[in-house]
């Protein structure tokens, strides 16, 4: 894929598609799932399939980038050389979604009624301690910290400064700019909600427009989980997005 294709495709999605939420998905590094909090608009020095960077310029070689101090870091903090712009971020509570998925708090079950389609979800509201969402700490009094029951997933502030992050950035730009300009909103709940609930959701969502967009990195196929497990984790994240975005979380 090319950077130019990203701009065109993302714009087409917002211009022609109807959606409630958008979860972009890309293949990341081995080691687990990552939910990306932010996306930068600058620092894309790695060339696409055509050897180009955003704007159409030719990408420099790794040696050239290294000589200029622009070869990106992999520290997970979003840093990449001397140029830094202000990132855009999702309005979703990524830490909360991660905590729910990591600890197996979102339960999915196939829909009933003989159709064999659709899923229902339930949120296990049992209190989750912070020790279950971070690296294990030294046990005291011979008590071991709780072992996460869900998938290995973590929040991230470094989406890679490549095509994945560029997709995320362009999607956030589209969502936020449409709110500012009063452009067409490509989501609609009228088909399944009452007038009162639709009005409440519409107000809540338009005031937090970036809550409708998120990017998730999945590990390479077969690295840690099966394809079925990847799909299950993705669906749990979607449920977490809706619960948080619609204000349906319980205290």
Structure description:
By secondary structure, the chain is of the alpha/beta class. It has a single domain, classed as Aminopeptidase, CATH 3.40.630. It contains six helices and eight strands; from the N terminus they run H-E-E-E-H-E-H-E-E-E-H-H-E-H. Strands 1-8-2-7 form a four-stranded mixed β-sheet, sandwiched between helices. Strand 5 and strand 6 form a beta hairpin. The longest helix has 19 residues. It starts with a helix and ends in a 6-residue tail after the last helix.
Structural features:
Aminopeptidase; 251 residues
Element layout with pairings:
Layout: H1 3-16, E1 22-27, E2 33-36, E3 38-39, H2 62-67, E4 88-89, H3 94-102, E5 106-110, E6 119-123, E7 153-156, H4 163-181, H5 195-206, E8 213-218, H6 227-245
Parallel strand pairs: 1-8, 2-7
Antiparallel strand pairs: 2-8, 3-4, 5-6
Concise synopsis of the structure shown:
The strands form 3 sheets. A 4-stranded mixed beta sheet has the order 1-8-2-7, sandwiched between helices. A two-stranded antiparallel ribbon has the order 3-4. Strands 5-6 form a two-stranded antiparallel sheet. By secondary structure, it is α/β, with parallel strands linked by helices. β5 and β6 (119-123) form a beta hairpin.
């Amino acid at each position: 894929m090319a950077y130019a294709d990203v701009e065109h495709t993302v714009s087409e999605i917002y211009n022609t598609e109807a959606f409630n939420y958008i979860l972009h998905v890309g293949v990341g590094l081995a080691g687990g799932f990552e939910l990306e909090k932010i996306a930068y608009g600058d620092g894309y020095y790695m060339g696409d399939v055509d050897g180009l960077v955003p704007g159409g310029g030719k990408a420099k070689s790794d040696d050239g980038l290294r000589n200029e101090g622009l070869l990106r870091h992999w520290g997970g903090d979003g840093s990449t050389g001397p140029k830094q712009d202000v990132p855009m971020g999702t309005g979703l509570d990524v830490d909360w979604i991660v905590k729910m998925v990591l600890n197996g708090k979102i339960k999915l079950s196939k829909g009933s009624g003989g159709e064999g389609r659709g899923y229902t979800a339930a949120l296990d509201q049992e209190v989750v301690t912070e020790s279950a969402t971070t690296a294990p700490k030294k046990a005291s009094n011979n008590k071991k910290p709780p072992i996460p029951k869900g998938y290995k997933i973590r929040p991230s502030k470094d989406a890679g400064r490549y095509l994945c992050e560029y997709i995320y950035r362009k999607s956030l730009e589209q969502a936020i700019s449409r709110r500012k300009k009063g452009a067409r909103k490509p989501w609609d709940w009228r088909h399944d909600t009452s007038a009162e609930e639709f009005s409440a959701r519409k107000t809540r969502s338009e005031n937090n427009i970036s809550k409708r967009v998120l990017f998730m990195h999945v590990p390479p196929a077969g690295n840690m989980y099966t394809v079925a497990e990847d799909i299950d984790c993705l669906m749990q994240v979607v449920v977490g997005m809706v619960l948080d975005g619609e204000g349906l979380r319980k205290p």
